[in-house]
Amino acid sequence: MKLLTVIFSITLIAGILNAENETYPEVTAFAATLKDVRWELRGTFGLKGIRYDGSAMREMKTNGSEGAVFESAVVDVGVVRLNFRGANTGWYLFSDDLRFVTPLTVSGEVAFKLTPDAKPKAVQSFPNDVSGVVFESVSDERQLQPAKLRWTGSQLEIGKQNEDKSWTVDKFKPLLANRRVFETEVNGEPVWFAFSADGTEAWLLQIENIFGGEVSKSPRQVTGNAISGLTAQQNELLSHSEILAAEGETVRAATLARHLKRLLAKKPDLLKVVEGRLSKIH
Questions:
Q1: How far, in Å, CA of 213 to CA of 242, rounded?
Q2: Quick check: 131 and 153 in contact, CB under 8 A?
Q3: Which helix (H) or strand (E) holds 34?
């Protein structure tokens, strides 16, 4: 897809709007609900737990002590963005009841906003409430070619303006990946399109990794036996996917299952075993 190649050939924006500091009372109210809740992360490598202290997300170590403090922005209801030391960012998508979180490692992102002539509509039924709505890319220091995004009701269209002012349009049949989120694959890698709760913004995210997480509790939930040949992180993703499905979080569960299958694409024997286990819930 030429459009995505052009978009992601340039590094990430250094910063992003912190909606808490703007006039978004619903986002401010959401941020308040996060304060001092602890989540244990599943399938991650170094970062195993998080806590929001009211202004930033903090690392919670397995022994209960606190570690690094991350520059954080509550960018929407249910969504927190972390700036890491490197080029990547972390996006954390929380369930309505805050019991579960889907952490993402994002290697590229583009922000979109409603076109000037469009009237905003709160997204209560996704994707119906964004059907036919056009979003345009937000210009920044990267000087990307203008782009537009639209869900037609049956496919996702992404248009990029060429240097001669003509437009190239790519069309996708996306899957639901989270609340107010579409997922497509480009060259075998996931790309997400997240829409804000108030219907005024959208974000294109190039996904490097997808993890799981749940509110800290004792004892910790574990399902089934670990599968020999999987890494500890992959076994955690498998178990967490099963927990999500059992709790009715079927979209989050299916998203993690797809990601685990992508990770095992070059290991057909292991993939077959995992698919057999996942077939019971998906």
A1: 13
A2: yes
A3: helix 25-34
Where b means 16+ CB within 10 Å and e means fewer, 46-84 reads ebbbbbbeeeebbbbeeeeeeeeebebbbbbbbbbbbbe
Other residues' Cβ atoms within 10 Å of the Cβ of residue 264: 19
* Residues forming a β-bridge with 114: 135
Q: Which of 179, 209, 251 shows the shortest CA–CA distance to 90?
A: 209
**Residues 261, 188: contact at Cβ < 8 Å?**
no
* HEC letters along 165-213: CCEEEEEECCEEEECCEEEEEECCEEEEEEECCCCCEEEEEEEEEECEE
- pLDDT at 220 (0 to 100): 63
Please identify which residue in the block is written with the tokens 């929001």. Answer: 52
Tokens for 139, please give them.
């210009």
pTM (2 decimals)? 0.90
The DSSP call for residue 257 is: H
Looking at the chain, how many residues does it have?
A: 282
Cβ-based neighbour number of residue 272 at 10 Å: 10
Question: Strand 189-195 relative to strand 201-210: parallel, antiparallel, unpaired?
Answer: antiparallel
DSSP labels, 4-68: HHHHTTSPPPS----GGGTT-HHHHHHHHHHBT-EEEEES-SS--EEEE-SSSEEEE-TTS-EEE
Please answer whether residues 279 and 249 qualify as being in contact, where contact means their C-beta atoms are separated by less than 8 angstroms.
no
- The Cα–Cα gap between 72 and 81 comes to 6
pLDDT in tens, 183-220: 999 888 899 999 999 999 999 999 999 999 999 975 56
What are the sequence ranges of the domains in the chain? 2-212, 222-278
Strands 89-94 and 212-215: what pairing? Answer: unpaired
Token code pair at residue 272? 């077959």
**CA 123, 126, 129, 133: dihedral to nearest 10 degrees?**
100
Quote the pLDDT of residue 22. Answer: 53
